[in-house]
């Protein structure tokens, strides 16, 4: 008898996602190729309209990446080099876009129950020169953004939402991205709404901020060849915009599938000596990632890899432990919750085309590891 080898379980399967939307994505690309218009044309303008109306914001401006969305948002808010912006210490990718805007990074630890910023952690980090808070909805799980928004208003500082991992998530009756003065999205291919390359979006209800980001994404121009400040080249291209337009109508369905997969994981892992990293939630997560906290993280990671199950770590280092940010002057031990998480966190496979059978296999292997 030949026993069929179980196929490798991928961490994310972009090919499967493409296969499930092949006709729509191919048509979108073809449409752009035949239009002969590749930069800042009808597709970007239409996607900006469709994305802002999906979220419920007045304006959306397509940019080249989530990193650029953060940089341009902070520049649009006119935050100076002598002023500070609070970011969570446990979110490696956010630090770059914020730092590139030239502001001072002010790190805050996170709440152990959901690994997001909390009012208490913000209070510990706030300084007299703090001008903004960047709240990250990590792993797709909403932070207490209503309270944080109230707190920021009370202090007269800006709130920026980093929704890179939380496209389509709800908070009460509103979508994430509608609470900040300005909010940022990434369409990196593995995101819940992913392009076939890089892409990002800034959304806001403030016309002035939207205009400023529009100008900053194109040399700082207010009209062609009239640049009033030094901007950059950060444009979402037409092919990516067309692909994202094709995928946007499926985002809620994709997120619903992720929620079902997460429930299955939570159910099957219930009796094991692990903690689901963001299970204690304020509002339902859209599970961009499915991280668990486990004492013997490195051993479990090796065991799963040896059993053909791909896993990831988000993130193995905190911002202050990254050589590029050494100059911030923080020390080991300054952010205990973030540091502990980086040693024990492990992301299990999670994407909309993952099957229930694959989740069951992952959980069986984890059970086997503990036996
Ligand atoms: C929370 C968060 N912020 C910002 C970014 C940066 O986005 P991008 O890779 O599109 O520059 C990412 C992407 O990894 C992210 O996950």
Automatic annotation (TrEMBL):
The keyword Cell inner membrane does not apply. Belongs to the DegT/DnrJ/EryC1 family. The modification N6-(pyridoxal phosphate)lysine is found at residue 191. One of its GO terms (molecular function) is transaminase activity. InterPro entries: DegT/StrS_aminotransferase, PyrdxlP-dep_Trfase, PyrdxlP-dep_Trfase_major, PyrdxlP-dep_Trfase_small. GO terms for biological process: polysaccharide biosynthetic process. Residues 4-31 form a coiled coil. The keyword Coiled coil applies. This is Erythromycin biosynthesis sensory transduction protein eryC1. Keywords: Coiled coil, Pyridoxal phosphate. SUPFAM superfamilies: PLP-dependent transferases. PANTHER family: 3-OXO-GLUCOSE-6-PHOSPHATE:GLUTAMATE AMINOTRANSFERASE, TRANSAMINASE. It comes from Candidatus Blackburnbacteria bacterium RIFCSPLOWO2_01_FULL_40_20. The active site is at residue 191.
């Amino acid at each position: 008898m030949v026993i069929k080898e179980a196929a490798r379980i991928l961490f994310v399967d972009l090919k499967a996602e493409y296969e499930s939307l092949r006709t729509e994505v191919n048509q979108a690309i073809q449409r752009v190729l035949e239009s002969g218009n590749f930069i800042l044309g009808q597709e970007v303008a239409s996607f900006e309209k469709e994305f802002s109306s999906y979220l419920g914001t007045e304006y959306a401006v397509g940019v080249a990446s989530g990193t650029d969305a953060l940089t341009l948002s902070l520049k649009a808010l006119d935050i100076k080099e002598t002023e500070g912006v609070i970011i969570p210490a446990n979110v490696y990718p956010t630090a770059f876009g914020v730092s590139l805007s030239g502001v001072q990074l002010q790190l805050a630890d996170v709440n152990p129950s959901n690994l997001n910023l909390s009012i208490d952690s913000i209070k510990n980090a706030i300084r007299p020169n703090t001008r903004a808070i960047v709240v990250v909805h990590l792993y797709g799980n909403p932070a207490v953004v209503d309270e944080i928004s109230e707190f920021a208003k009370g202090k007269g500082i800006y709130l920026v939402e980093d929704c890179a991992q939380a496209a389509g998530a709800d908070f009460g009756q509103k979508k994430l991205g509608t609470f900040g003065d300005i909010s940022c999205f990434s369409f990196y291919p593995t995101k819940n709404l992913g392009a076939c390359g890089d892409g990002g979006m800034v959304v806001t209800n403030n016309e002035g901020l939207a205009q400023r980001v529009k100008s900053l994404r194109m040399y700082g121009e207010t009209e062609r060849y009239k640049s009033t400040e030094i901007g950059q080249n950060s444009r979402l291209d037409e092919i990516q915009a067309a692909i994202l337009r094709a995928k946007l109508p499926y985002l809620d369905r994709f997120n619903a599938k992720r929620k079902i997969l997460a429930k299955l994981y939570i159910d099957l892992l219930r009796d094991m000596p692990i903690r689901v990293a963001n299970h204690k939630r304020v509002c339902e997560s859209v599970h961009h990632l499915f991280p668990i906290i486990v004492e013997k993280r490195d051993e479990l990671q090796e065991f799963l890899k040896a059993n053909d199950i791909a896993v990831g770590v988000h993130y193995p280092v905190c911002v202050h432990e990254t050589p590029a940010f050494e100059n911030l002057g923080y020390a080991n031990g300054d952010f205990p919750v973030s540091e502990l998480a980086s040693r024990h966190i492990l992301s299990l496979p999670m994407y909309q085309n993952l099957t229930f059978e694959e989740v069951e296999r992952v959980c069986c292997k984890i059970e086997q590891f503990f036996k």
